[in-house]
Amino acid sequence: MELEELPGVGESIAEKLREAGYVSIEAIAAAAVSELVDVGLGEASAKKIIIAARDSLQMGFESGLDVLAKRELIGKLSTGSKEFDKLFGGGIETQAITEMFGKFGSGKTQVAHQLAVIVQLPKEKGGLEGKAIYIDTENTFRPDRIQQMAKALKMDPKEVLGNIQIARAYNSDHQMLLAEKAAELMDADDKIKLVVVDSLTAHFRAEYTGRGTLASRQQKLNRHMHTLQRKIADLHNAAVLVTNQVMARPDIMFGDPTTPIGGHIVGHHPTFRVYLRKGKGTKRIAELIDSPNMPDAECVFEVLTEGIRDSK
């Protein structure tokens, strides 16, 4: 079904929608009324178009069996460590946002690099036979690290790097724009199966300081997370990994005072939340603290020259 087939959508409106990134009926159905108003449509027209798109896709109630059938389409992406994969029930899921947070040196970026390599492997080897998009906010992407990991898996390093699209985000607005651009790239290339944002909150944390800016920061973060979930994970059956910085809470007298940045807004969006901690030497500890279907658990893995591996 083309956009022009929706009631009230002529050539000029369809062109506006496509220029704004709404190139499919699914994208329209997943949009909010306010988003289409920002494109230049009237509120009544936006509501009518969205309802028509959702009706055409039969986005109403469905049985639990229908949901089960859709769940069978979900792919599992290996981290490189079987013990780590067990936390997620076999690997990081598509159609979901996975958040990994921890202190510096806890392995967040190493996991992100490893996933960008493994996603290109065949499914029987833990991959998704796909490509990756890497949104780098802290200038931590290293092509030489990708080459090390690729060689360890007997993959062509140049081919692996060629299948990763990297963009450096210079501020929070640029970061949000790159997420929208990632969705557009995925509309054109259905081989892209992983989107990494490393890290999610670095720019927001730097640009919005003080309590007076908290509401604005959280609203922008909320919109950003919605884009990652609806326009990327859901529409394209892709895995989304976001890394997150942490802070220490001085009001915690006993136990670990470390808590992720972003508050409840960031906390509610990810399907899986994993706390990474540094162990002895190359060892790292991963603790699953939130999941809709897996119990809280933890495992030990290692960050080696070859990449992420099970601990010996």
Descriptive keywords:
about 300 residues; alpha/beta; DNA polymerase, domain 1; Rossmann fold; 2 domains; nine-stranded mixed β-sheet; two-stranded antiparallel sheet; 13 helices; 13 strands
Account of the protein in words:
The model has no long low-confidence stretch (mean pLDDT 93). The protein is built from 13 helices and 13 strands. A nine-stranded mixed beta sheet has the order 5-4-6-7-3-10-11-12-13. Strand 11 (283-290) and strand 12 (297-304) form a beta hairpin. It is an alpha/beta fold and 312 residues long. It has two domains: 3-56, 5' to 3' exonuclease, C-terminal subdomain (DNA polymerase, domain 1), CATH 1.10.150.20; 70-310, 3-Layer(aba) Sandwich (Rossmann fold).
Topology of helices and strands:
Elements: H1 11-19, H2 25-29, H3 33-39, H4 43-56, H5 64-71, E1 76-77, H6 82-87, E2 92-93, E3 96-102, H7 108-118, E4 131-136, H8 143-152, H9 157-162, E5 164-168, H10 172-188, E6 192-198, H11 202-207, H12 214-236, E7 239-244, E8 246-248, E9 258-260, H13 263-268, E10 272-278, E11 283-290, E12 297-304, E13 307-310
Parallel strand pairs: 3-7, 3-10, 4-5, 4-6, 6-7
Antiparallel strand pairs: 1-2, 8-9, 10-11, 11-12, 12-13
